[in-house]
Amino acid sequence: MAGNSIGQLFRVTTFGESHGPAIGGIVDGCPPGLHISADELQQDLDRRKPGTSRYTTARREADEVKILSGVFEGISTGCSIGLLIENTDQRSQDYSKIKDVFRPGHADYTYWHKFGIRDYRGGGRSSARETAIRVAAGAIAKKYLKEKFGMEIRGYLAQLGPVAMDKVHWNEVNNNPFFCPDPTKLDALDAYMRDLKKEGDSVGARVNVVASKVPVGLGEPVFDRLDADIAHAMMSINAVKAVEIGDGFAVVEQKGSTHRDELTPQGFSANHAGGVLGGISSGQDIRVSIALKPTSSISIPGKSINLDGEPVDMLTKGRHDPCVGIRAVPIAEAMLAIVLMDHLLRHRAQNLDVVCNTPDIARLQDE
Amino acid sequence: MAGNSIGQLFRVTTFGESHGPAIGGIVDGCPPGLHISADELQQDLDRRKPGTSRYTTARREADEVKILSGVFEGISTGCSIGLLIENTDQRSQDYSKIKDVFRPGHADYTYWHKFGIRDYRGGGRSSARETAIRVAAGAIAKKYLKEKFGMEIRGYLAQLGPVAMDKVHWNEVNNNPFFCPDPTKLDALDAYMRDLKKEGDSVGARVNVVASKVPVGLGEPVFDRLDADIAHAMMSINAVKAVEIGDGFAVVEQKGSTHRDELTPQGFSANHAGGVLGGISSGQDIRVSIALKPTSSISIPGKSINLDGEPVDMLTKGRHDPCVGIRAVPIAEAMLAIVLMDHLLRHRAQNLDVVCNTPDIARLQDE
Amino acid sequence: MAGNSIGQLFRVTTFGESHGPAIGGIVDGCPPGLHISADELQQDLDRRKPGTSRYTTARREADEVKILSGVFEGISTGCSIGLLIENTDQRSQDYSKIKDVFRPGHADYTYWHKFGIRDYRGGGRSSARETAIRVAAGAIAKKYLKEKFGMEIRGYLAQLGPVAMDKVHWNEVNNNPFFCPDPTKLDALDAYMRDLKKEGDSVGARVNVVASKVPVGLGEPVFDRLDADIAHAMMSINAVKAVEIGDGFAVVEQKGSTHRDELTPQGFSANHAGGVLGGISSGQDIRVSIALKPTSSISIPGKSINLDGEPVDMLTKGRHDPCVGIRAVPIAEAMLAIVLMDHLLRHRAQNLDVVCNTPDIARLQDE
Amino acid sequence: MAGNSIGQLFRVTTFGESHGPAIGGIVDGCPPGLHISADELQQDLDRRKPGTSRYTTARREADEVKILSGVFEGISTGCSIGLLIENTDQRSQDYSKIKDVFRPGHADYTYWHKFGIRDYRGGGRSSARETAIRVAAGAIAKKYLKEKFGMEIRGYLAQLGPVAMDKVHWNEVNNNPFFCPDPTKLDALDAYMRDLKKEGDSVGARVNVVASKVPVGLGEPVFDRLDADIAHAMMSINAVKAVEIGDGFAVVEQKGSTHRDELTPQGFSANHAGGVLGGISSGQDIRVSIALKPTSSISIPGKSINLDGEPVDMLTKGRHDPCVGIRAVPIAEAMLAIVLMDHLLRHRAQNLDVVCNTPDIARLQDE
């Protein structure tokens, strides 16, 4: 059934396949009065865009977004915003060979068995290409949250295969093609990726996203908790297999005396919780971490079956990122922005004040 | 706004505070024709019930569930099912001391700042007591899935503090108060918990849940993916801070050649994906793992502030589980059942066959 | 699928059958800080209650509502509010005869064919008894709207069979068992009802509801228009077959020069539109009119069939209102209140001011 | 908040303003396997298209719909379907004069007061132009319902001002520009419209829609009843002020012995109910009637105010239909199709059979 929407009050609905004429979406619920231009959305889209470095897919897409409605003379009207990105570099001929086989690790098998039909060109609807519209929609949310509340939503590559970052220098993140916050690791990343490409293999990654200056009070217990909705949004990103809030899995071995963030008149003395208590934002930084699997599109042959259930040897050609986790950074930021925006509106519906002045001693530092 | 519902077609809505007269819920969307009795729901409720061992809270609740509607002569009618559990052991006097202070690590601070009012008795709505209704509702879903499709949804304690289980013997899980699947670890668990109680501290845990004989095709891309909805449901459980599907965070260091589950005419040759590809179930076991934080209600004093922002020393009295993760096992099973039930109905809406015969070579073994 | 909820942000979900142990509901999304007591809800319930006059069903129900959650020390907490009314006068024995037959004009036939099972006692879920919870939930909405914005939501019987009211004296409505606003018609109503009872027949009615001091701006185009949601809510009341906003069907023969409500610096010069323009409230009175069919439970024999499709002669016994439209007045008020409350919250979510000061020249007068 | 969607499982979301670059929408939840082409959607769009006769607006729009996704090699894939219609004849210059004034009877006043900003060109989002996408989406639903169940959804003009139709000849409806089912009235319609144009005035209309061969069992009590959702969908059409199901307002004066449709072994002996009992379809024809107000865009001057609240004399120029009700016929059909499609999917979710074989003695005849 209808599963292509996210959000209740700030609601994003998308359509489009990898090799169709266009992808697009509708942002419903954006408050009126926000200055929005296609150029601004384009900035985040360009960060996600394929073909920007030798580490990402060679597919070249302009990814030029058009705003078709909901913005009048540069200002949002409160009506639904139509977004459109035409697909320009489709190369459908690349994909005809995989028409009758299921690529291992892909959604080919499940789409086929669910729907009995699939657009096999480039993964069709299951392609990560769809996430471009998420980024455009997220850019609208980001702008609103920043402009009205000073909220900042930023992500970075925390680990790529064995290479884990040690430090977070926020102002370095956008200076390299890896969204890497630790410049001392750039050589290691470069070397690792070169080897990977030689092998024809791919690798997983960890991406962290942090929202700062979040108002206290966002989240609606008991099911639509802020953290539950974040988990949903993050796990809806292609290739994501795990989500952590705050200390995440480290809590398994923690004791209560360590984990509970004590309160002082100056604010919280730590942020193990990741900015959410009882499903409601505490005013501290929201800290989210996600794991992205290695893409299954690699040039090492693998076993699979065809539509008749007969064994075949597969070798995925086409142009693919050896680490899809890298380009996931702006996508994860967009999803967090969409969830926060939605919950901000939900909070405000009850005529509750939006308060942003919580002191936050434990805020993630950029040393 | 309205956040007390989960599910689209199989929709569970709950109400009730820890120390109010009752907790309850409505299950809307249960198909007609299912045999349901309060006794059957009670079986799962008894597994979650407090006061069953010296390792869980001493609060004693009968947790007796009543079915008020939607079942006629023992059979579901397709109409909404009303569920009610009266609170019998409320002891409100225990809680009057915490009226004006925020217990560190609890939802006191966030509920107060969000709503400007809170039912402080036992955590009010933020108490895990609310999950009893989830278990009752989940038992309905479990029964339907088992009866119609042979689906089996089972959980166990995978780790408690430093004690990690090595083996999974499914038939041992319900033979001990820990939901522990590895009998060789029972002594270690017992010793660890005894020490913990002496310290007055608490500890985190990891719980795994597995759904077997899941039909192929459940899940609605691109936002309402099966794994995204599982992540949402799991993160909505009190104290959960992380969720993994399949290999979870281990994928960060995996290569594509390892991670992708190859296909053979006999079925998948591995299950790194955890039974979900492209957001749709593959027919393999759904493997979910969650992390539960240590409860913040411990008898070691901690720093906090009162409503006026002044520093106070807190010492949480009352009756609390030293490891809330243990009792989370039936809750996690219930949430997984609710999500699968919801997606089964969503799948069927499109007149798609429900197919359960996928060979599953990699199914989790009980050796 | 799940169809027992109404509203997005102020969401009411109900359960319960005519002859089950209880009916109940959950109100989710009520803002915190509202003084609510069971006594206040009871006042509207008592207006709807059966057995209050010789013109309504002889069934006697205390209809005593209990608030089980969401209200702490008399004040709403922002958490879900559980409502419960126990069924005390059930007399199941009355209904065993209709177990195997379909009463003409009732939902027996459709429930049976939809679900393959039905609780035949008193109509089960299809009984108007369910509306008691709507009235209780609506009373919460009414109180909020009145207290915060001065909104007034009032209904009256506009026509009963051939007896149409000529004038609307608001302060007469609750002084008679008919909710009749025109005292000159009371004798005619009384005579008509006496004759009807003698015949053993029933009759339809028209009920009007008016909301005054409605803020400008409520309603979300293009599908969730205020008038569209009002139409939905009204048509969801048992026995309602038609809904009008403003001039309703009279517009068919109107010209544009007559219908359009001109604007002057002092306000609108008329209210043909019924307070809604383009799906958004204009600040004028919302005027709604509904038609309720005559109940099919009459003591005049009728033709029908049994479960085997064989012809039977039916004679509905039991205790029934000869005009169900009368008791629909508080129900219609409740539904209008629920819709306005929901849209008020939706409006406010976008940080839009709630403005109530529109001059309204054309407001319905009580001369 | 987000209000631009309709339907739960067959969900239509739209965007676009009268004078923006394009209007569009997303149809989410269409089952896979349906043959769909833009040409087929175009047929219904052409019936709604402006500029087809001298009785409708002179605006000329190609209204050419493009399918951007969700259809692969002519067959629906189960993924979201993107629809786009470019606006070609926009003439924005016509509208600059009304920038600072509120046209009486239009949504100008309410959009302005709600949002604080409005796209004044041609009514912006409040323009009926938006309904073109409804027609395209409805054509998909219509095709599915017809192909899989033989359902037929057809509308006609029942009354235009004082001219009421006496007979319904279905095969005449599409032979004249009025969707008039009674050829004996064509001259009267023609004369009336000519006079109306001379006066510069407009008039209201009544449109009837009938769905035949509807399966028994569609509709989800107690709030999402089939008739309640039909009322919502119909009232969401621009200019609609009233909705009737079956006998509608005539029930006010009916007696129960007349209204209740008796059952015989051969089927229902009448259809006063309009095909819905207890909110669930009975298998009889669904009969719906709606009233459309006269457009307020007329060339007779009217009083209004400007943004500063000062009085102005308004004279609406531009190109407008003297009776918007005429072109509402395909729109009303589309909305009924969307609701029935949605409820068909909802019904099927519970694994309930879709049964279409109810004998229907009272079906509306075309003599």
UniProtKB/TrEMBL annotation, chains A, B, C, D:
Gene Ontology process terms (BP): amino acid biosynthetic process; aromatic amino acid family biosynthetic process; chorismate biosynthetic process
E.C. designation(s): 4.2.3.5
The UniProt record lists the keyword Lipid metabolism: no
SUPFAM superfamilies listed in its UniProt record: Chorismate synthase, AroC (SSF103263)
The reaction(s) this protein catalyses: 5-O-(1-carboxyvinyl)-3-phosphoshikimate = chorismate + phosphate
Binding site residues for FMN: 125-127, 238-239, 278, 293-297, 319
GO molecular function, a single term: chorismate synthase activity
InterPro entries attached to this UniProt entry: Chorismate_synth, Chorismate_synth_AroC_sf, Chorismate_synthase_CS
Pfam family, one: Chorismate_synt
Enzyme class (EC, first level): lyase
Cofactor binding annotation: Reduced FMN (FMNH(2)).
GO cellular component labels: cytosol
UniProt keyword terms in alphabetical order: Amino-acid biosynthesis, Aromatic amino acid biosynthesis, FAD, Flavoprotein, FMN, Lyase, NADP
Chain sites annotated for binding NADP(+): 48, 54
PANTHER family hit by this protein: CHORISMATE SYNTHASE
Known function: This reaction introduces a second double bond into the aromatic ring system.
The protein's assembly and partners: Homotetramer.
Record-given protein name: Chorismate synthase
Organism of provenance: Alkalimonas amylolytica
This protein's encoding gene: aroC
